[in-house]
Design goal:
heterodimer; A: 87 residues; mainly alpha; F1FO ATP Synthase; 4 helices; 86% helix; 0% strand; elongated; B: 269 residues; 7 helices; 2 strands
Chain lengths: 87, 269
């Protein structure tokens, strides 16, 4: 674990010295954290649309459950966003 | 040419943009208690509360069978929270929690919509105290209701769930316990806060960048003014998106509060 952190830190420092790239690891961390919830929200919404197409009369209940699912999966992306400011 | 002033303590009026040098300066808090000044957040907080009380009071002051337009509009909101959220999610005894759910829905809705009202442009729910406190209120309600209705079997059903094979019960019980008592209030608050902070930061960056490109630095060139108009236009587009996010986040907070109360009232589901 320490070795991985050391390698990542060395890579960031090298990039900053060589190409004049500035910035911090916060942005990279947030970007990585946003991959999962992005795919997850897409899966939830896609399945909800498919279910609404199969049985339109329960579309209201499906919409409510879709919002619930989106809220849960998006929570991790938002925690990543908060940690971006704390890092 | 006036500088654009962005929430900084003191201002150098010769620069085009006057900003705090570090974005975390926006998140500092004052630790004195009795010397707390009346800040913009406090003032808007009381304004939001007054608006909510005023809307509901003036709509239901003279109940009539033929509703006027304003009464129909407020009926839409209160009826929606009652039918879809309180009774729809919690069941027939959800009417006991309806005042609380309606209050938080309308307060968060007004607070979020302050982001898009023209002279205010600051969502009060982007300061952690407000979503944090509302999440703590929901947390207290669903924990106390859980213990009041089910006694200690509420805790027993969480850490030793009966719908899971016995070998997995310790692990699932631990995950459920941490989820119920730690993750739920935290994620409830952070979801609302981060959505509002992200929207506010995005709007500020886009609109101020567009404005500075259009009016600052003296020279007028097609590239600079064009870029300014583009950024400003994108900012106005995000404005519309922010209205959707405001309403959606208020609805999701209320919906999740109702779902958590429902799992306390009917733990067998």
């Amino acid at each position: 674990m320490d070795a991985v952190l050391a390698v990542v830190n060395a890579a960031v420092v090298l990039a900053q010295e060589a190409g004049g790239i500035t910035g911090s690891l916060n942005v990279v961390g947030y970007g990585l954290a946003a991959i999962g919830p992005g795919i997850g929200v897409g899966i939830v919404a896609g399945n909800a649309v498919q279910a609404m197409a199969r049985q339109p009369e329960v579309a209201g209940m499906l919409r409510t459950t879709m919002f619930l699912g989106i809220a849960f999966t998006e929570a991790l992306a938002l925690i990543g966003f908060v940690l971006f400011f704390l890092g | 040419m006036d500088p654009v002033i962005l929430a900084a303590e003191e201002c150098d009026l010769t620069q085009p943009v006057c900003a705090p040098e570090n974005v975390s300066e926006l998140f500092v808090f004052d630790t004195t208690l009795w010397n707390t000044p009346i800040t913009r957040t406090i003032f808007l907080f009381f304004l939001a509360a007054l608006i909510v009380i005023g809307l509901v009071y003036f709509a239901y002051r003279k109940p009539a069978l033929i509703r006027s337009k304003f009464q129909t509009a407020i009926d839409a909101i209160t009826g929606f929270v009652r039918d879809e959220v309180s009774i729809g999610i919690i069941g027939p005894e959800g009417i006991k929690y309806y005042p609380y759910l309606l209050s938080i829905f309308m307060f968060i809705l007004v607070g979020n919509l302050f982001e898009v009202t023209p002279l205010i442009n600051f969502p009060i729910t982007s300061r952690m105290a407000i979503p944090g406190f509302l999440a703590i209120l929901t947390y207290l309600i669903f924990v106390i209701v859980g213990f009041a209705k089910n006694g200690f079997s509420y805790l027993g059903d969480i850490v030793w769930p009966s719908s899971v094979p016995v070998a997995m019960r310790p692990l699932v019980g631990l995950i459920e316990f941490v989820s119920y008592f730690a993750i739920r209030p935290f994620s409830l608050a952070v979801r609302l806060l981060a959505n509002m902070v992200a929207g506010h930061v995005m709007l500020t960056l886009l609109l101020v960048t567009g404005w500075v490109f259009m009016t600052a630095f003296g020279e007028v060139s097609i590239a600079k003014q064009g870029a300014g108009v583009l950024w400003f236009g994108l900012g106005l587009g995000i404005f519309v998106f922010e209205i959707l996010v405001a309403v959606l986040q208020a609805y999701i907070f209320t919906l999740l509060s109702a779902v958590y109360i429902q799992t306390s009232v009917h733990p067998e589901h």
